[in-house]
Specification:
Helix content is 55%, strand content 14%. The protein has 129 residues and is an alpha/beta fold. The protein has one domain: 5'-nuclease (Rossmann fold, 3-Layer(aba) Sandwich). The model has no long low-confidence stretch (mean pLDDT 96).
Amino acid sequence: MMLSVDANAYRAFVDNDPVFVEAIQSATQLAFPVVVLGELRAAFRHGTRREQNEEILRQILARRRVTIHEISQATSVIYAQIWSELRAMGRPIPTNDVWIAAQCIEHDFALLTHDDHFRHVPGFRVLPR
């Protein structure tokens, strides 16, 4: 399975949550949306273990089956569609999460997350179930 990792799923993985460790270890490909990397690094800056956290992230990103999803023009089109659909349903989600969903849809990756609001995004796979 091709799996994209949300910031809270990354934290659960680092903290050895068995559900998230299993999902990440069994994925054939892992992706980190660039927005997630920004969220993680912002959190690292406000923590007491910034260098340790950066090193752990650097080691994970260096793995062969890990990619980083950048924001592209295609992402912006998908973003606009998701944002409009959620607004019409009366179910807006945080802006960063719309970008993350758009990147997952663009690259056909499921998203590993704790955030249930992603389940409102049409045509989007969210784990764990």
